[in-house]
Amino acid sequence: MALAKIVYASLTGNTEEIADVVCEALEDLGLDVEMNECTQVDAADFEDADICIVATYTYDDGNLPDEIIDFYEELQELDLTDKLYGVVGSGDSFYDYFCKCVDDFDKVFAATNAKKGAESVKVELAAEENDIVALEAFAKELVSKLG
Ligand code: FMN
After folding, report:
1. Does residue 77's CB lie within 6 angstroms of at least one atom of ligand 1?
2. Against a cut of 0.90, is the pTM above it?
3. What CATH number does domain 3-145 carry, 3.40.50.10860, 3.30.1070.10, 3.40.1110.10, 3.40.50.360?
4. pLDDT tens, 66-110?
5. Measured in angstroms, how far is the CA atom of residue 117 from the centroid of ligand 1?
6. Residue 70: partners with Cβ closer than 8 Å, 6 or more residues away
7. ipTM of the shown complex
8. Model confidence pLDDT, tens digit, residues 10-48
9. Are 138 and 145 in contact, with CB atoms under 8 Å apart?
10. 24, 68, 109, 144: least buried by Cβ within 10 Å?
């Protein structure tokens, strides 16, 4: 059975809920899923996964949350050829750089040679019904790309 790993950063819970939605959707599609907070795992753990997913919020002026910086830097060192990846996250459009960290992780994943399995999903604060639909579609799209 294919294995998906979801790594998330979440200060006030919005991104964790988003990660939960993706996790449940992938499980419903028959995958094994491991979900961990970003300080509890190494980026190299993605080497054992078929699908690698990051869920992150964006902090001040479009900066990465402090707690995910080490993970982000480790990810830059990896070769994830033959893996699928996807990125989701929460932000607040009140700020200039809405969900910028989602795009930052997208770029880093692309540089690892992983293949983008689904378009990123950016959520305004907490996920609402339309976001849940988009997150479930994201999961389905990723699974459809498995070889
Ligand atoms: N959201 C953005 O999209 N871009 C930002 O630059 C940004 N800066 C923030 C700075 C501060 C001090 C705070 C408190 C929030 C900021 N946000 C920004 C909004 C958070 O990303 C948003 O509240 C998100 O839902 C938090 O996710 P969490 O509940 O998983 O911690």
Report:
1. no
2. yes
3. 3.40.50.360
4. 999 999 999 999 999 999 999 999 999 999 999 999 999 999 999
5. 25
6. 39
7. 0.99
8. 999 999 999 999 999 999 999 999 999 999 999 999 999
9. no
10. 144
Q: Is the CB of 89 under 6 A from ligand 1?
A: no
Q: Which atom of ligand 1 is nearest to the CA of 17?
A: 30
Token pair 């707690």: residue: 67
State which ligand 1 atom lies nearest to the alpha carbon of 61.
6
For residue 81, how far is the Cα from the chain centroid? 17
Q: Check if 146 has its Cβ closer than 6 Å to any atom of ligand 1.
A: no
Q: Judge if the beta carbon of residue 56 lies within 6 A of ligand 1.
A: no
State yes or no: pLDDT of 147 exceeds 90.
Answer: no
Q: Is 10 in the pocket of ligand 1 (CB under 6 A)?
A: yes
- The whole-angstrom distance between residue 18's C-alpha and the CA centroid of its chain comes to 9
Q: At 1, is the pLDDT very low, low, confident or very high (cuts 50, 70, 90)?
A: confident
